[in-house]
Amino acid sequence: MPPPDDTTNDGRARRRLLVSGVVQGVGFRVATLRRARTLGVAGWVRNTADGRVECVAEGAAAAVDELVDFLRVGPPGSAVRDVAASAEEPTGADGFEILADRGPA
User: pTM value?
Assistant: First the structure.
């Protein structure tokens, strides 16, 4: 699936991603944090109550694309089944963090 067309005039992109498969309890969030910081991508990552990992990534479009490529494979021990991506307007986010798990709605 090609990435959404979410690049702004200044070359920044922001995407919300939902990763499904074996993605909890395998170091997925920490690996995502490390990769995002290495790439200079801002945003956050957290576990969801339904067993997926949710991530918001913002930064240079090429760097966001690279993080999405990483999420499609995941760290050792994970087994990514699907990554659903949607474009959002960049907000000027700075830094990347792991948020508390998202509990039941």
Answer: 0.88
